[in-house]
Amino acid sequence: MTAPRTLKKLRRRGRNTARGWLAQAVKTYAKALESTEPSSSREELFAQVLQFTEQILESLKTSPRSKEPIHELLDDTLALLAKELGLESGEYVQAIKKRQDHPQQLNPTLNDGADNFKGLTPLSRLSQLPPLSRCPNLVREVDGNLSHETVLALRDFHPEIVLYSPQIPPNTGTIARLCAAFSCRLHLIEPLGFDVSEKSFRRAGLDYWPFVELYVHSSWEEFLATRPSRRIILVETGGKQTPSEFSFEPGDLLVFGAETSGIPVNILAECRESQRGHLVTIAMFDRGVRSLNLANSVSIVAHCALSNIHSRSVSSQS
Predict the structure, then answer these.
(1) HSE-up (13 A, CA, CB side) for residue 109
(2) Cystine design at 252: which of 159, 203, 295, 299 (Cβ 3.0–4.6 Å)?
(3) Are residue 79 and residue 174 in the same domain, yes or no?
(4) Cα–Cα distance, 184 to 180 (Å, whole number)
(5) Are residues 302 and 154 in the same domain?
(6) How far apart, in whole angstroms, are the C-alpha atoms of residue 33 and residue 45?
(7) First vs last Cα of the chain: how many Å apart?
(8) 164 and 26, same structural domain?
């Protein structure tokens, strides 16, 4: 297995992939040892395993996906392999011992401190400051990806996705993945139709959870208290403007109701009476279709909102 392909899989699947590929490498080299006798060949094989492990560790150092000290697991495995090969006094084992004495510190994820689910962000991380009024400079790394600081700044500029009492785990998981790609915060308002630790919910978000700011609020009132002075954009039937016609602003709260019942009537009435509430409706051209899928609706509105605020931001800066 070539290193680039191995590292690609590691970045996609995280800790379990690292463990699996190391185990596969050890198994492969162990079989190769059966046909080698000179100690120099054994040392060479062990050096290859060590190099493979170094590549894994380097990938983990530059990726926020893995939060657990996987380097300890890899080093323990290598030390055991060295003992089996009779290389306990070799320079490679000394390198392992040195690393164990001075362990690598992996980059913390955005979700450190979460209690029951690694993708859940503590409410203490949620600032009540107003959103950025201008789009931050899009600073890119050498590989072309936006820098970590730019992504964080975009979350203070982009609209935020709010799901009131979502019922279907895969829908919410898919939306979480969208929020990771769009650098948008995601808020879930209880009661939820599922537990955030459910496999179907986590699986739909794949391994993008460390890149999602996911907040769970116990009630609508509690949520509003965390986002004062922001406009509330209710996506529901009965609106006079479509997402493509509406003028979005930085930090807007895009609110979507449950798959089965939509946004509660009392919240719609409350928002209509306030200056914060605005109703937006996705146009449908065949009323034989009762409604759109929730994840599809979020995709449509979020893309329109981002296109709108970014195009106006470019125009104002030119």
Answers:
(1) 27
(2) 159
(3) no
(4) 7
(5) yes
(6) 8
(7) 49
(8) no
